[in-house]
Amino acid sequence: MRGRTAIVTGSTSGIGLAIARALAGEGCNVMLNGLGDPAEIEAARAAIAEASGTRIAFMAADLRSPEAVRALVARTVEDLGPVDILVNNAGVQHVAPLATFPDEQWDLLLAVNLSAAFHASKAVIASMTARRFGRIVNISSALGLVGAPHKPAYVATKHGLIGLTKAVALEVAETGVTCNAVCPGMVMTPIIEMQVADQARVTGLAPEEVVREVFLDNQPIRRPVTAEEIAGAVVFLCSPAGSGVTGTALAVDGGYVAR
Ligand code: NAD
Hints:
Blueprint lengths: L4 E4 L5 H12 L3 E5 L4 H15 L3 E4 L6 H15 L4 E4 L14 H28 L3 E6 L12 H20 L5 E8 L5 H14 L3 H9 L11 H12 L10 E4 L7
Parallel strand pairs: 1-2, 1-4, 2-3, 4-5, 5-6, 6-7
Helix pairs in contact: 1-2, 1-8, 3-4, 4-5, 6-7
Bound molecules: nicotinamide-adenine-dinucleotide.
The site of nicotinamide-adenine-dinucleotide (NAD) has 28 residues, from helix 1 and helix 6.
C-alpha cells in the first residue's frame, strides 16, 4: 500500500483518526478532513506524519456542501496525487423520537452521513476505474443493518450507505475498484458520548446506566469495540488481500447484529 493516496473524511477525531493513522502506518499518503480546533488538528497531523514518514495533509472541508466535497477531492489530487483510497467516515447523530425529530437534523444527517459519500465517490470514480485500482470504504454502522428507536435519520442514512455501497460495487466490479461498507458496533468516541447524553435525556436513565443497559447490553462482547479494530478492517479491505471483497457490509460490532 506504500505510496497510495487516501482521503479519510471526518478524520480529526475518533474512528476516522484511527483509520488515517493505520493507513499512514501502511505507507499511504493521507488527506485528513474534519472539524475541530486547528491547533489540535495540526498536532495530530504532524504526529501521524512523523510516525509514518508519509505525507499527511489536512483540509477542513464542511461536507454538508457538495462543492466542499469536490474541493476536498481536488485539493487531495493537487497535494498528494490521484485518489486510490476513499474512506467516507464523517458522520453525525441526532437522537429524538420521530414526532419531534427536527427537520434540520434530518437534512444535516442526510447531507453528512449519506450525500457526502455519494459526492466524494462520484468525484473519484472515473480516475479510479481509468487507473484500474481503487478502494472505497463507507463507514456505516451496526445500525446500517438493524434498526433502533429514536434514531430515524441515523438508521436511514446508515442503511442508505450500504445500498450505495452495493450499487457502486456492482457498477465497477470489473475495473479493479472495490466498494465496501464497514459497520462498527459501539466505539467510545465523541459521537457516542453525545448520544449517551441524548439517550439519558430521552430515557431518563443516568449516563452510566445508558452505557451499561442501552449500549453494551446490545453488544455481546460487553465492551466497546476499539477504533483500532475498525481501522484494521479498513486496512484489510484496502490491502491486496481484500481485492476479492466487494459490495459487502462487514460488521465489526462485537456480535451486535448476530443476536
Ligand atoms: P466522531 O464524532 O469522533 O467523529 C466524527 C468526525 O466527522 C469528526 O472528525 C468530525 O469533525 C467529522 N464531521 C462531522 N461533521 C462534519 C462536517 N459537516 N464536515 C466535515 N467533517 C465533519 O465520531 P466517530 O465515532 O469517530 O464516528 C465516525 C464514523 O463512525 C461515523 O460515520 C459514525 O456514524 C460511525 N460509527 C460510529 C460508531 C461509534 O460507536 N462511535 C458506531 C457505528 C458507526
